[in-house]
Amino acid sequence: MFTEEDGKVLLKLARDSIKSFFEGKDVHVKDDIIKKYSEKHGVFVTITIDNTLRGCIGYPEPIYPLYEAVLNSARSAAFSDPRFKPLTKEEFKDIHVEVSVLTVPELIKAKPEDYVKNINVGEDGLIIRSKYSSGLLLPQVATEYNWDAKQFLEHTCEKAGLDKDSWKEKDILVYKFQGQIFKEG
After folding, report:
1. Do both 10 and 36 map to the same domain?
2. Domain containing residue 122: CATH number
3. How confident is the model over 148-164, as pLDDT tens digits?
4. Could you report the per-residue pLDDT of 78-98, keeping only the tens digit for each?
5. Is the dihedral of CA 81, 82, 86, 91 positive or negative?
6. C-alpha count within 13 angstroms, C-beta hemisphere, residue 90
């Protein structure tokens, strides 16, 4: 578990990563931050403007040190999310940043008809993986849209480009994970 102070550091890293892009610079990360946040974690950075999604990208698996995952995810969310045009310098002053630090995804080892009983809405995020695609929704998404576990599964399938009932098929893998969420403001 990370503290609120840790959350402030991670949010600042994310914001600094975006700001430095506009300045044409690399982010200077202090040695103490590198040392403290060098353990590998999955992470997502979400950017909103006026409570409207403006970018959200990250790493579901712990493949980078946390500080590096935050820096990369923030830049990608701002400038490389294929759903949006790159963030402009004029928009930067209006953004709100959210950092979600993730646990390692775990396969739900149950029959598809029992998945719903194994998902804690508001605590669990979901990943749906098929042979050809995957989709991920963060834990807070189900709560924001007031979805139950079945709706959460359906929407995660759609995020993966699959039919909403694909989670019932035996060759579809369903994973859950938790996230510690830090928001600006």
Report:
1. yes
2. 3.30.1490.150
3. 999 999 999 999 999 99
4. 999 999 999 999 999 999 999
5. negative
6. 0
